[in-house]
Fold this sequence. Notes:
The chain is α/β, with parallel strands linked by helices and 348 residues long.
Amino acid sequence: xxxxxxxxxxxxxxxxxxxxxxxxxxxxxxxxxxxxxxxxxxxxxxxxxxxxxxxxxxxxxxxxxxxxxxxxxxxxxxxxxxxxxxxxxxxxxxxxxxxxxxxxxxxxxxxxxxxxxxxxxxxxxxxxxxxxxxxxxxxxxxxxxxxxxxxxxxxxxxxxxxxxxxxxxxxxxxxxxxxxxxxxxxxxxxxxxxxxxxxxxxxxxxxxxxxxxxxxxxxxxxxxxxxxxxxxxxxxxxxxxxxxxxxxxxxxxxxxxxxxxxxxxxxxxxxxxxxxxxxxxxxxxxxxxxxxxxxxxxxxxxxxxxxxxxxxxxxxxxxxxxxxxxxxxxxxxxxxxxxxxxxxxxxx
Length: 348
Ligand SMILES: [Zn+2]
Ligand SMILES: [Zn+2]
């Protein structure tokens, strides 16, 4: 088969590799029908994730069809259409018993396209297949389901639920990339009074409006804090989410929230940020961090299948497997290309 292989910082190729096979009785092999690229894959290609060894097949988000199952797999049979989650779960360790699958101690967690070969391939081996896949309901497209592999549960769990968004809240979301946009979509499930999207790229702020932001702020030309003050009588936002992953945007998020409010960090950080305890010790803030656990994926599948959540605008570009290198090129130049999520499949 062919797969997208990482060959060290800056080096990748779509090339012939051996087909995956069942290695453990809890494995399944899945034919990949649709796959996407994550911002995290770009971090890997920059060399920011040294655990990823050269030779690794990248990717941790896919929708596909089961082609083989190990002897211990109970819930899947060949022919089933499944979502391959970004998080694998052994199902029996201390954290899995608690629904904290992202922290799995039994060999799961974020392993696909990280510690083992991933989904950017024609076929993928999925460990702990019963706990690491979800069946695709009839009537849900591959593209809609694909958005539930990572970005929707990540923004919903780590942003909206950790941020304790409630009806009537003023919610500030710093960053309008795919994760920030997915946070807008899922925050709306709780009927906040205002969602304020903050970014420095006008193209992304336009997208934020189409995803449901009530107010957009270009932080390059406007003060987000004064906009939030205007909405809240000077108090600050009830919840501020950080969806970029830089020290400055984290500090901005902390600065936007009211006393007693929630700061939910979603961004992946590579450098220390300053926490101004001298200002906030007195403010009763709750600051949360997190890797997605994907405990909410069944809920999100129900919302998509029931047409309560429309993710269709997220996919801006489609490619065939043979065009995988082009897909990376377009996704990595999102500023120029306007790419949000790309979908790669056998045919367009
Ligand atoms: Zn991802
Ligand atoms: Zn586990």
